[in-house]
Amino acid sequence: MFGLDQTQLILLLLIIGVGIRRWRARPGVVRVHIDLGLITPIEIQVRAHDLIEADRFADAVELISEESQVSRDEADDVAKALRAGRVLPDFPMPWEDDLPTRVPNLVSADRRKEAVFLVRSKEGMSQAKAEAFVDSPPPEPNTSPSVHSRQAHSRERQKP
Which residue has the higher pLDDT, 133 or 152? Predict the structure, then answer.
């Protein structure tokens, strides 16, 4: 048949059968991987940073891996960045309050370190500037609550 002997025909049918089986077994969902970089929630960064300061680097890596649902390698990169003094981007949440509203709420809830991390993450400030921002009084109710107006208010207060 078709100029093939029995062995060649069996091999051809076997190859066709394997191909059909693989085609049917293919996943019905296409997987797409998008690398978002090292985005880690601020709360987790603060808790991991506390562990790093307590000389518990491995525990910090485990916390980041479990809480952020990232691989151990990515968690290790995050922990190394935190140990080096960097603050990583937080997940953007469209329903969150603006920074001048969130910072006083965190400070009043005894979460000052989280407030400093948040300001550093959102505004790209240094540690010292972020601490000054967090420690500055909130803007007057009649003014526009922006980071820049709050900084200006803080500078005016410090002038003699």
Answer: 133
